[in-house]
Write a structure and sequence with these properties.
- This protein is an alpha/beta fold and 121 residues long.
- The chain has a single domain (2-120), classed as Transcription Regulator spoIIAA (2-Layer Sandwich), CATH 3.30.750.
- The chain has 5 helices and 5 strands; from the N terminus they run ββαβααβαβα.
- Strands 1-2-3-4-5 form a 5-stranded mixed β-sheet.
- α4 links the parallel β4 (76-82) and β5.
- The longest helix has 14 residues, at 22-35.
- It is globular.
Amino acid sequence: MLKINREADTLFTIQVNGQVTAEEMDAELDRLIELSKDIKGGRLLYDIREFEMPSIGAVMVELRKLPNLFGLLSRFDKAAVLAEEPWMRAMAEWEGVLIPGFEIKSFAHKDEKEARAWLET
């Protein structure tokens, strides 16, 4: 399951639970692109519950939309990742190192208030 919502002016939540299908990836990425078209200084809060590799179709959708997704990065400054698995939190922070001008910090689900506070700084 993949669900993207605009929670506040510049805060978007991305919920992942289980395997993401091609249909979900297609619809939700289009939703994120549309909802964030006028955003500057945006924040992302990823909530990853039961992680499973996305379907092959979902990966293909993401690859097809990659040019639009790279353009999306300029609209956002930070992302907080909520996940229980230490390897997933480490991977998220490592990804942040690879993207210039974009900060990623990870938290356990019990630290959601801290994650939201960090996004506001």
